[in-house]
Amino acid sequence: MLEHIHIKNFVLIPNLELDFNSGLTVLTGETGSGKSIILGALSLLLGGKADKDSIRLGCDSAEISGIFSTQNNKILDILDEMGISHEDGRILIRRVVRSSGRNHYSVNGMNITLQEGSALSDLLVDITSQHSNQSLLKRDTQLQALDRSAGNLQLLEEYSAGWGVLKELEKRRAEYEEQVEKAISDREYNEFCFNELEKAGLEIGEDEKLKEELEISSSFEFLSEQLSVMRGELEKAATSLSDSLAILHRCMKKDPRLSVYESRLESDGIDVDDLKQEMASYLSSYSFDPYELEEKNSRLALIQRLKKKYGGSIESAKKRMDELSELLSLANDSESCLLEISKDIEKQNEKLLFLADKLHEKRASEAQKLSKQITSILNTLAMDQAVFEITLSPVSLNAHGRDEVHFMIAANKGEKKSGIENTASGGELSRLMLALKSALGGDDDVATMVFDEIDAGIGGLTAANVASQLKKLSSKHQVIVITHLAQIASKADHHLLVSKSVVAERTETDVFPLDGKKRIEEIARLLSGNVNDISLQHARSLLEIEG
Q1: Listed residue (123, 129, 134, 118) closest to 45, CA to CA
Q2: pTM value surpassing 0.90
Q3: How many CB atoms lie within 10 A of CB 98?
Q4: How far apart are CA 365 and CA 166, in angstroms?
Q5: What distance in Å separates the CA atoms of residue 348 and residue 342, rounded to the nearest whole number?
């Protein structure tokens, strides 16, 4: 709800701080006192068109700021998406209009665009007047209102979830078709690459093994020479160990304790002899085949080329081969996969059509009930010949079902019904909005509702009926009304008087809260145009105050 508004240097207002409360608030005052200026300031704050002429004469800029409080998750989610912090659901909106043409719009200190501000404001305040942009004049809002009244929210959640599944399936099919198209287009090249890799028969680690073998081959002469020398040294070592063992045996005859070294010398001799044999065998394995060397160099060159072409490693090349296999399968056998996705889409469409039919049935039933109810309310609001009707037109399946809603009205007998957005009269439009919101049970998401011109051309019993509907609506919403009628003003929880005066040779508009005697006098003025004993007595009776 709107808690506070500050208006500075706007038309006839040099500086005004104004608090608002819940319930029903009325603004009254003499014609030309500045009630429309207050409404204009609020409209500007909510994203209305800026006019440099609205800046108070002699000033460079006008500033409007407003404090709102909300627990509406839709609004809080929008603030989160915009990156705007909000503590306890409090929102400070500030609008500055400069004579230079450079304007400023911010929410909780963060600059935003006028479009973003308007979208946010539409969820905070709904202004109903001849030239305002009421939310209920929009088709999507009308459908939402009808669904809330019909109790369709849970069904809509189920439908919305199903719609999301359908969109995801359609996205998958579109992506798959795009992949198939590209796979078919690239099939010849993909076949060439796959065959090249398949023919190569790459093995992980093969490149490193080849490098090692080539290094050995290139060192053939050095290794042969050195290992031959090593074999000779082992021959000498074997002879030395054999001679040492013979000496040990002779010594053992004189000193048996030396026998502890016998097994060690025998073992060392055996080890050296084995090593000598192994080296001889290893040396005989060396060979130099120039043709084999050329083959290995060619193989390594092929591997290096394929690695460079397919990702830098044998692993990436083998992975690419698997991908190419899948792409070739996709190009050659796409129909079965597409058929499967299409079947899933068809099934999901059937589910959605079933849910859309249930929505339509509930909407149609509620539309008929609301049409009668709203017509009945309008007939009590000086529109006794008006006929209101909610119609549903079939459309293609969409995110909201298969219905397009139309709020239609014929304001006078014999007239053709047309969309409520075409209602010309400001007073009729205000009363129509009041009837709509009253019939909808006050379930509108917008917390604050402002009515202007609602009392145009009415009085007596009709005025009392309008006041009664406004009072009823204010039990669920903050309702602010600009009025000239005592019957409406007398029902208010809060009464504000807008007045105009001359201060230091300048005309100024100011607003004062009324209660007690001052409020009785203002109600009396509204009744008869002047304050006298009769009008005061009538005012007290309207306010149910004993004289």
Answers
A1: 118
A2: no
A3: 16
A4: 28
A5: 10
